[in-house]
Amino acid sequence: MSEQGIRLTVAALTRRVEEIFRRAGLTDLQARSVAEVIVAGERDACKSHGIYRIEGCLQTIAAGKVDPRAEPLLADDGSAVIRVNAKGAFSPAAFALGAPVLAERAKQLGLAALAINSCTHFSALWPEIEVLTEAGISAMAMCPSYSTVAPAGGSEPLLGTNPFAFGWPRASGQPYVFDFATSVAARGEIELHRRAGKALPEGWAMDAAGQPTTDPERALEGAMLPFGGHKGSAISTMIELLAGVMIGDMTSRDALDYLGTTSILPHHGELIIAFCPERFAAGRSGNPLDRAEILFEAIAGQGARLPSQRRFAAREKSLAEGIHLSADEARMLERLEQG
Amino acid sequence: MSEQGIRLTVAALTRRVEEIFRRAGLTDLQARSVAEVIVAGERDACKSHGIYRIEGCLQTIAAGKVDPRAEPLLADDGSAVIRVNAKGAFSPAAFALGAPVLAERAKQLGLAALAINSCTHFSALWPEIEVLTEAGISAMAMCPSYSTVAPAGGSEPLLGTNPFAFGWPRASGQPYVFDFATSVAARGEIELHRRAGKALPEGWAMDAAGQPTTDPERALEGAMLPFGGHKGSAISTMIELLAGVMIGDMTSRDALDYLGTTSILPHHGELIIAFCPERFAAGRSGNPLDRAEILFEAIAGQGARLPSQRRFAAREKSLAEGIHLSADEARMLERLEQG
Q: Interface pTM (ipTM) of the complex?
């Protein structure tokens, strides 16, 4: 292998990652769905959700905190709430089972929700959102994490980095989609500052005594801050309530108590809410997908970037030229394949 | 009348405000529901949504931009989406009609939405959220406004101040509820700085040339900024999509084009999403309302205030001692009564 690294098609990389997980004992559904999500991250140059994640997944299997043989179970009572009990599996397997039923129910009732329970969660939320926008559905997704963020006005870690994502389908095939942590920064960014010996920006974190800090070591011992002050803190609390308490699953504090560490992947649930734009707009004038384009043009037309554009550009490049792995990344993959 | 002002019970003030609107030509349903929402604001010491709002409502009637005789129409096809066409009425009348059906449908299906169309909107969203939490329902509410906020990375007003509210029922009767503008500040706060001749805090607004400004005059000619940078901007855009485009109603830009001014109340739609916690949690361990209390205690226990606590304290005082109006406010009320 050259020091320039290697190029692989999306399909080829997916096969290799899937095989690693199969050898680690995952069921076919788990291995395939986990590999697809990880390769989607790598394809879109979201390095923090790409093949770098494989080791974390394997460590969580080794720690016995995920069940590689679990078969998620779908429960559908015909209401607006679809449930998938992941039974300890990785979340992408549960989502793969529930997503088609969710999209169908949203088209039937206008609105539906998918509650995923008892899963191990490591992925970004946009891969799930994009499965739904692909089916013409608009969706919100949210989940707790583990307690690392202090509520606004407090100083003790309680909330998680609690991601929130939303998507809207577009005829172009590249949906309007955003996906962000409700903390000022992702925990991984603080870790990266620590490794690089760099100070944090102001306003990211406080130390164990509740004082503002720019020292990443002290920040990791203390608490991160929510984005947008009390407003972001409120949204993060809403996520604990809806995607933790309401669906009868762990809050970020429960997840931390269960695992006893933030060094393996969190175990909790997830909530996805799906909207059928055509059903909502029925009987009103104007096609909702066409009208949304006017809004997007007014945003992009003033030089404001739509979310995920950088990711879509990376995706186009990966699809055209293959996914590039550095020599180090290619060696990591080979090492994991030799398991 | 003494210069100390007057005290009125909630019921007495509601009757007086209702009568003002009846004399202004509103139907019984509109007069009652508008008065209840305005008095709720005054009762909770939310001065910007209290009796101060009466004149704005009357001006909007005089401008012919709201229909005082409109009878909102409920459409229910048995799906998860309940619709009320306000037919140009004030929004509280439409909500009053739709709320019981929404709560019932959420209990039946687990999840339901109320799409209100073609209303004039002036109220905070928490009065609506609290009607639902009172019925044991958790809810989100959102609506566009009119274009006064630039998307993150842009410089032209496009988004509205687009409020977002959420509530969760509590046995104490005081729900967990938040309600905030997705702009850094409400437009009224910039106006108050202008009147007081005070500079704005940094980061609230930009001038017409797209440069940051702390001058309230220039800010009003330019654009406000979303809260929380690109994250708040994304949430505000989501509100334009879901509560404007998706429900077949005006975006903030449409509303400004329709009215031609921000000096009368905006005309658009509203979206409320209702969740039944018992239905979502069914079959899982733990009662969701009890589990939520553990979260609230962990927030309050570290000295972080839950949202709306100041408002609830003002409410308790108003209910015990009556609502206090200053001499100026009492005179304003009398003037409006002589209309």
A: 0.97
- A309 touching chain B per CB within 8 A: no
| Contact assignment for B111 to A111 by CB distance below 8 Å | yes
Q: Do B281 and A230 touch (CB under 8 A)?
A: no
Nearest C-alpha in B relative to A113: B111
Q: What is the pLDDT of residues B83-117, one digit of tens each?
A: 999 999 999 999 999 999 999 999 999 999 999 99
Give the pLDDT mean for A61-78.
96
Tell me, what CATH number does A190's domain have?
A: 3.30.60.50
Task: Determine the distance in angstroms separating the CA of A153 from the nearest CA of chain B, rounded to an integer.
Answer: 4
Structural domain that includes position A37: 6-181+236-338
Active-site annotation holds for B48: yes
Q: CB of A323 within 8 A of CB of A38?
A: no
Chain B CB within 8 Å of residue A188 CB: no
Which of A304, A157, A319, A300 has the alpha carbon at shortest distance from A226?
A157
Residue A230 lies in a domain: no
Q: Do A153 and B304 touch (CB under 8 A)?
A: yes
When divided into structural domains, chain B yields a total of 1
What CATH number is attached to the domain comprising A272?
Answer: 3.30.1370.60
Stated pTM of the model: 0.97
Residues 234-263 in A contacting B (C-alpha not used; CB under 8 Å): 234-235, 237-238, 240-242, 245-249, 251, 253
Beta carbons within 8 Å of B246's beta carbon, 6+ residues apart:
A138, A275, A277, A280, A281, A288, B271
B278 touches B288 (CB < 8 A):
yes
Q: Could you tell me which residues are beta bridge partners of residue A177?
A: A167
